[in-house]
Amino acid sequence: MCKKIFMSEEIVLERKKDDGYLYKLEIERAEYPENPFDDDYMLMNFKAYHKDYILGNCLDKFKDRTEFLRFINNNDCFVMKVDLYEHSGIALNLYSFEEEDKWGWDNGLVGYAFCTKKEYEEKTEDINNSNWKEKAKNIFEKEMYDYQKYVNGEVYNIYECKYKECPYCKTQSIVETECLGEFYDDYLEDNLNYLENGEEWKKLIPLQCA
Fold first, then answer.
1. 2-41 pLDDT, tens per residue?
2. Are both 131 and 190 inside the same structural domain?
3. What does the buried/exposed string (b/e) look like for 104-134 if buried means 16 or more CB atoms within 10 Å of the residue's CB?
4. Verdict on whether the full-model pTM lies above 0.70
């Protein structure tokens, strides 16, 4: 048996190798998580207008909604409205551009998610598809979900830590640490299962845990 503790920011898997060292997979909340918009793979652009939060990737574009609307009217674009709901965290929800703006005491229209047809074709290599806007919508929903995780700090690193154990007092001291990746909390278990079954971890001897 291998010891697993998910979402505890503690040891999630530990095994002993025949070199005498103890190896542990550990999770830790990412102190400086990577902004999804820093990656070229993102299709969605997000222009937000909020007095308290810096959101999205169009910080220096479209100083007001009039300028933004002029842009989408002059380009072949797919656009969705973004609603921000704030209650012990930030929830960002997409809805149709044609729907009426949503307003409430703790939520309201905060901006727009959009891409041009040219951007869609360049990012997806899906050329001349008459259904491109529906496909873009599906991509937006996944990307906004991940961006929301980033905004709320729900991002974790998985580390492989190498420990040396004192044969007399059994005190463990860390020898080496390697970061294996950064993951949103929803994907931690899948990634840990993948790492557990990887070639390097297959070579380790499982510790017997109660």
1. 333 333 445 667 777 777 788 888 888 888 899 999 988 8
2. no
3. eeeeebbbbbbbbbebbeebeeeeeeeebbe
4. yes
